[in-house]
Write a structure and sequence with these properties.
Chain lengths: 323, 260
């Protein structure tokens, strides 16, 4: 990692008790369309903070406001105690941004992409070169430093984007859907790198519509739906509040799930009916299944699992996260 | 110690340009040379033998008359194209410009950087044409040193307004029309092939408002002599006005585009 002392020195000091990012009544509308409908949140220093929600929930609009590239329509937003309306440049100098779509120069090499980006922060060429070397090592792309970006895989390109976003040694790293479109193996490599950044104490702000990603990376998250925050907390506390310990998934075959909603309700605290299965929320999945079988109600298949953020989202919005 | 933002953006262009400079520089020689031989020599020989040439062009040969206009027209064509597809790439395809404004850079810095990058391209192109003109006795003149910056102004007077227009587009399907119906007519009616006085009065008046006519008059006057200070200042003022208006339009359009 680059030496943190090398970053620009700012007079603003954010105490450990204050949020790095504070939003109050934050609204973003485009013409008549309200993308973000008045949200409040605080991101603490060193925290990994997530926005979980389906496509169109207002996550990207929120991220663009935090990134100081989209002025809030109304409401108050502060980063490092500064207002993006007046201090956008100063704030952006302390942010790292990993956009949803990679914005790399495909015709340039991996290392050139990093060097050019460093110049946007007015980092000297010499300093940029040494940081680029370290960062490519960090994202495990040293051997690809001099190859063009174009032929790299999706996961490699995303790692270039992450290396690029760290070139200014940012205090806050903003990641919009960091692993969307990547295969499982590439996602795990990326999570590992992000986890290391988190351990170093860097503040991470990320959006995702993958519950496993949110569970793995986020200390705290907000669930967004339709431009609003519908719940907030740690992944564990959200699951504890909005779901039961376990979920019993029952499949009775096409068209017959609906017939068993009442039976299922008797053995659990709550039942969700999905097109292909019933979800029975219960503290003891195996016990609930045994009770059903004792009553001669035998599903085609049954599965007991721990509750996840997916269940939280279903409870809060009545919809699944990934369609 | 701090390097101006526009210069740091232009460093990216320079890095990209390093990959294509050979083709670009060769093009800057070959294209005007072909035009010069095809039109200047070919058509010129027909005209210079004709009876009325002296009444219209004075002592100037048709070759010299046409060749000097190439400084402005070649630069116009090249920078206009630069301001279309490559600019679209930054906004829509590679999204490089969106990446820039996530850093301390502002859309306004990008507009200012365009003055440098398009100006640089215009310098290469007009420099190439000037080298070709220096090969021929009738256009070999110290005035070429003044005509190159004049042609750079011409290039910017096209590139900046076109870049602003490109920044407002979502698709590139209208780009060929810009070249066919805006740039090409100026080439044909802007005084490159004949003095605009030869045109019907209405078209002549229109030509006075085009940046190309002013640029051609300026380049021709500087290389062949015969431009007085007053007219030169007038021509430069018009070109600079187009550039300034284009820059201002870029700042507004880019801000709307990149920071919705």
């Amino acid at each position: 990692m680059p030496n943190r002392n090398l970053g620009p020195i700012f007079v603003t000091v954010t105490s450990m008790r204050e949020g790095v990012i504070t939003a109050t009544g934050l609204v973003k509308s485009f013409g008549g369309l309200v993308a973000v409908g008045g949200i409040d949140f605080t991101v603490m220093p060193g925290e990994a903070f997530g926005f979980l929600g389906p496509n169109g929930a207002g996550k990207t609009s929120t991220m663009r406001m935090i990134g100081c590239v989209s002025p809030p329509t109304t409401g108050d937003l502060q980063l490092f105690g500064l207002d993006p309306r007046h201090d956008g440049r100063t704030i952006r100098a302390r942010l790292g941004v990993v956009p949803q779509m990679d914005q790399l120069d495909n015709e340039l090499t991996v290392v050139e992409n990093l060097l050019i980006y460093a110049r946007y922060f007015d980092i000297s060429r010499r300093e940029a070169r040494s940081r680029a070397t370290e960062l490519l090592e960090f994202v495990q792309l040293s051997e690809r430093a001099n190859s063009k970006v174009e032929p790299l895989s999706g996961g490699q390109k995303r790692r270039v984007s992450i290396a690029r976003s760290l070139i200014n040694d940012p205090d806050v790293l903003i990641l919009d859907e960091p692993t969307t479109g990547l295969d499982p193996q590439a996602r795990h490599v990326l999570w590992d790198r992000l986890y290391q950044l988190k351990e170093e104490g860097r503040t991470l702000v990320l959006t995702t519509h993958y519950m496993d990603e949110a569970e793995q990376l986020c200390d705290r998250l907000v669930v967004m739906d339709g431009g609003r925050i519908v719940a907030e907390g740690s992944p564990q506390s959200l699951i504890a509040t909005y779901a039961t310990r376990e979920v019993l998934e029952l499949r009775f075959g096409r068209g017959r799930n609906a017939d068993h909603v009442a039976d299922a309700a008797e053995v659990g605290e709550r039942v969700e009916e999905l097109p292909d299965r019933l979800l029975v929320y219960t503290t003891d999945g195996e016990g609930s299944l045994a009770t059903l079988r004792n009553r001669n109600i035998v599903p085609d298949s049954a599965l007991v699992r721990r509750s996840s953020l997916e269940d939280v989202f279903l409870r809060l919005t009545g919809r699944t996260l990934v369609d | 110690m701090a390097t101006p933002a526009a210069v740091r953006i232009a460093e990216r262009e320079l890095l990209l340009y390093r990959r294509i400079w050979r083709e670009n520089v060769i093009g800057a020689f070959v294209q005007p040379f072909l035009y010069l031989v095809g039109v200047g020599v070919g058509v010129g020989s027909l005209i210079d033998d004709g009876g009325d040439r002296a009444a219209i062009l004075g002592e100037t040969s048709y070759f010299a008359f046409y060749a000097t206009a190439l400084l402005a027209t070649t630069t116009m064509f090249n920078t206009s194209q630069e301001a279309l597809w490559p600019t679209m790439d930054g906004f829509r395809w590679s999204n490089a410009f969106r990446g820039m404004i996530g850093t301390p850079l502002e859309p306004r810095d990008l507009a200012t950087a365009f003055l440098l990058t398009f100006g640089g391209r215009a310098l290469v192109t007009s420099g190439g044409v000037a080298c070709v003109l220096a090969l021929f006795p009738s256009t070999r003149s110290l005035g070429l040193f003044g005509a190159v910056p004049a042609a750079v102004l011409c290039g910017l007077a096209f590139a900046m307004p076109i870049a602003a227009w490109t920044g407002s587009r979502d698709v590139d399907n209208t780009f060929p029309a810009i070249l066919r119906f805006v740039v090409m007519p100026m080439f044909l009616f802007g005084g490159a092939f004949y003095p605009v006085e030869q045109l019907p009065r209405a078209l002549e008046v229109i030509a006075w408002f085009t940046p190309l006519w002013h640029a051609i008059e300026l380049c021709r006057g500087l290389v062949l002599g015969g431009v007085d200070t007053g007219s030169a200042v007038g021509h430069v003022s018009v070109l600079v006005s187009y550039i300034a208006a284009g820059w201002l339009a870029c700042t507004i359009v880019f801000d709307r585009r990149l920071r919705p």
